[in-house]
UniProtKB/TrEMBL annotation:
It comes from Yoonia algicola. The keyword Lipid biosynthesis applies. Signal peptide: none annotated. One of its GO terms (cellular component) is acetyl-CoA carboxylase complex. This is Biotin carboxyl carrier protein of acetyl-CoA carboxylase. GO terms for molecular function: acetyl-CoA carboxylase activity. It comes from the Bacteria. Pathway: Lipid metabolism; fatty acid biosynthesis. GO terms for biological process: fatty acid biosynthetic process. Coiled coil: none annotated. Residues 58-90 are annotated as: Disordered.
Length: 164
């Protein structure tokens, strides 16, 4: 049933899904539309994101205009260290989900306190909507603190680890 009207509406529908993905800072969206007998549209829209993983990135406001307000100002090295999210080495959560410190139960964790990581190394996984999102180290350094528990919930913007 691939007539032009159906095709145009499918293109509009997919464009609307992509917009929803961007506006809500999602990484993936999957929809199946049933049109009738043996005629359906199955769409999966996803994006590879270099999500906001540093609390002190001034460009964060431009990257995610609908994100919750960033901490008051980019943290200065002399910031209050009692709040881990103010630490300049804080890696923050790019999404709401469940934290997993290892690739599977019983496996060695991706990162441990004192471990050296390279930029781009997976430091943990956040499961959101049944999708496993690998969270990369934004820079090379040493894991100084791990601020989340394996299997625990995490909010958007919450500090995950401190890398110095």
């Amino acid at each position: 049933m691939g007539n032009k009207t159906s095709h145009d509406s499918d293109v509009s529908f997919i464009a609307a899904l992509a917009e929803l993905l961007r506006e809500n800072d999602l990484t993936e969206l999957q929809v199946k539309r049933e049109y009738g007998d043996n005629d359906s549209l199955n769409v999966r829209v996803s994006r590879q994101t270099q999500t906001i993983v540093q609390a002190s990135v001034p460009a964060a406001a431009q990257t995610a205009p609908h994100a919750p307000a960033a901490p008051a100002a980019p943290a200065a090295p002399a910031a209050d260290m009692s709040d881990p999210s103010n630490h300049p080495g804080a890696v923050t959560s790019p999404m709401v989900g469940t934290v997993y410190m290892a690739p599977e139960p019983g496996a060695a964790p991706f990162a441990t306190v004192g471990a050296t990581v390279k930029e781009g190394d997976t430091i943990l996984i956040i499961e959101a909507m049944k999708t496993m999102n690998h969270i990369p180290a934004p820079r090379a350094g040493t894991i100084k603190r791990i601020l989340v528990e394996d299997g625990g919930p995490v909010e958007f913007g919450a500090p995950l680890v401190i890398i110095e």
